[in-house]
């Protein structure tokens, strides 16, 4: 039984699609289907129910997949180790991040990592949260950074940091000189809010509703950077993660007011493809990222620290 066929089988199970698994492995959909049929003949059992859409595993398929995934993961890990051992070229780490985390903190972490590991190459792309999950699940990037991270069949999530959510507004706003605010004081205030489909808005709305503060959303956006531009023209107040406001506070274009509501936070985490070990360089970058989960000053991030395995 060929390892290629086992990998195709595992990818079909994880993506629940013959066509997507075939494309990822550089074969036709017909060839992928024939590989699975050949595996089923060799093990003497039907593994996949092709009559359902999306496809579903049969009981024998569940058992075979669990063992098969381990075999494929071990072989991929061995390939990665051999590549790291024999390659003298710069290693690239591929990362996809939601905009707000990337622009507020990730850039300084990347700069700090490169200062410690000058032969490395870290490529970061900024995407909508759903797209970050998609890129990681398809193996197109090694690491994803998202808010409110969640596990799935093909994704494993790890906590990275927690970010306090605060009120942000223009220096022209009546709240601008307040040292703190109660949630009840936000009742009826014109607000620049997140898109209703985003998890962060669901959490903010839940907390405000519990406090009896009715929202008056005048604008909605699907990313923090655009929200900040609306707040700068005094379109209302916003509830944003504190670390995302540093540049605007330093420039004097926005004011941050803490809330008298402990526990209103945005969790941020790292996601990676389940069962697929990270290459050595990506593992080192992830360790560096975890070490700097709470560092806010870019000068501190760029200070050299020992790297695992170096």
Write up this protein:
This protein has 310 residues and is α/β, with parallel strands linked by helices. The chain has three domains: 3-86, Arc Repressor Mutant, subunit A (Orthogonal Bundle), CATH 1.10.10; 92-160 and 271-301, Periplasmic binding protein-like II (D-Maltodextrin-Binding Protein, domain 2, 3-Layer(aba) Sandwich); 162-266, Periplasmic binding protein-like II (D-Maltodextrin-Binding Protein, domain 2). It has eleven helices and eleven strands. Strands 3, 4, 5, 6, 9, 10 and 11 form a seven-stranded mixed beta sheet that branches. A two-stranded antiparallel ribbon has the order 1-2. Helix 5 links the parallel strand 3 and strand 4 (121-126). Helix 1 (3-15) crosses helix 2, helix 1 (3-15) crosses helix 3 and helix 1 (3-15) crosses helix 4. It is elongated.
Number of helices: 11
Q: CATH superfamily of the largest domain, called what?
A: Periplasmic binding protein-like II
Question: Per CATH, which architecture of the largest domain?
Answer: 3-Layer(aba) Sandwich
> What is the typical, i.e. mean, pLDDT?
86
Order of helices and strands: HHHEEHEHEHEEEHEHEHEEHH
Instruction: Give the structural class.
Output: alpha/beta
List the keywords.
11 strands; Arc Repressor Mutant, subunit A; alpha/beta; 3 domains; D-Maltodextrin-Binding Protein, domain 2; disordered C terminus; elongated; 310 residues; two-stranded antiparallel sheet; 7-stranded mixed β-sheet
Secondary-structure blueprint of this entry?
Elements (H helix, E strand, L loop, with lengths): L2 H13 L2 H7 L4 H15 L4 E2 L6 E2 L1 H28 L5 E6 L1 H18 L4 E6 L2 H9 L5 E5 L7 E15 L20 E5 L4 H12 L5 E6 L2 H9 L5 E4 L4 H6 L3 E3 L7 E9 L6 H12 L6 H4 L9
